[in-house]
User: Fold RNA polymerase sigma-54 factor from Croceibacterium soli.
Amino acid sequence: MALGPRLDLRQSQSLVMTPQLQQAIKLLALSNLDIEMFIGEALETNPLLEAGEVRMERAAEPEQVREDAPEDPTADQLIERGRGEADAPLDIDPDTLDRDRDTGDWSAQLAAGGSGEELPDIGDRANKEPTLAEHLEAQVGPAAPDARSAFIARHLIGLIDEAGYLTAPLREVADDLGVPLAHVEEALAVVQSLDPTGVGARSLAECLALQAKEADRYDPCMERLIQNLDLVARGEFARLKRMCDVDDEDFADMLAELRGYDPKPGLKFGGGEREPIVPDILITPGPKNGWNVALNEATLPRLVVNRSYYVELRGGCQDKASKSWLGEKLADANWLIKALDQRQKTILKVAAEIVKQQDGFFRKGVSMLKPLTLRAVAEAIEMHESTVSRVTSNKYLNCQRGTFELKYFFTSGVSSADGEGTVSAEAVKAQIRSLCDAEDPADVLSDDKLVELLREKGFDLARRTVAKYREAIGIGSSVQRRRQKRMRAGG
Assistant:
């Protein structure tokens, strides 16, 4: 059988996502702070983009659709000067993006802001507070008696965890550095003399002892108390009194002093990589007993196309490759502005529906939080469930009750006692916390008793469910709570 070249023509179908669509999907999941970083990169790579004015979008009374919303003037300017297909803004087909319908029919009023501020430097958002390691290293020089101790002390600081505890045995440190153990112990004493007091400890008892010494309260009685923290945890106060040889009043003072110490002194300082939570959405009371839903103007994207610069560059383009490159940059800039505008409208639309669904929470608190799913919001605003999931990721909402992640408002439900509906799991947790906070120290509520009290309030839960919710919000068992209340009472 002879071998030879042959041409075949085949027809096939495949779904291909363009880079623009992939980028649009990623933009939905980013917070406004992440968008700032993205815009900073775009400004560096596209000469036609520049920082522009803040564009505000507000939704007064989200339950009412306002049909008189003017269009974005920035988008108009981009569409006006049609200089051929290359100048036209890129269009995003909403049906291709997660099968969502167009978000243009939105209940927000678009208006042009006038702050005139330049795009803030991305580096300004970095956490400028010193880390624990930086705070300690700044003190080593004056505290160390010589260069050798300073070197070992800095090495030990690198082994301290975020809570302020030394995580490596001194013998291993000595072997790693090739120095005598006595030199490492001297350096550890230097570290433990630094601020905050208690840092560099190898155990909780040592951490509390360092703080007691700093307060000049480390007498033999306090030493015995700190050396027997397991008895304190078990609430064996009578035994501790005999061991410390103190009366009730002195023992109560010792416990109060012990409670005033910080078991994790290192947590006072930042980790160096954390960023402050800046709300993406602001909720304020509106007219007619409604709500104003708006994006945080401080973090809104601000981009415009420099048309004059484009015209100047276009006049200087002599070859086809240069014109093609300039056309691509203009198309990319137009598409990015349109994508960011669509992202803002989508976020506002989702946020307004959440506010509408959880109106009771914003008026009366967590006890009125209703069970809510992504599907319910997606169906109400006629979007795909995956898009709602992306919009609610890494987004925070600020209202009169505080700052909450959008995911917080999507909670599972439990059956009510009458069997006619469901209530939010967060509402149940709030009731459990309220009951435990109000319980009598002499009559701590068991899980069975909590089940009965919750049933009287309209929550039909099994005992294991109550125990699960109680542990989820950090409330101990009835035995643990009884010990804690006895400690607060001083025995």
Remarks:
- Residues 132-268 form one domain.
- The radius of gyration is 31 Å.
- The chain is about 50% helix and 10% strand.
- Residues 10 and 16 are 18 Å apart (CA to CA).
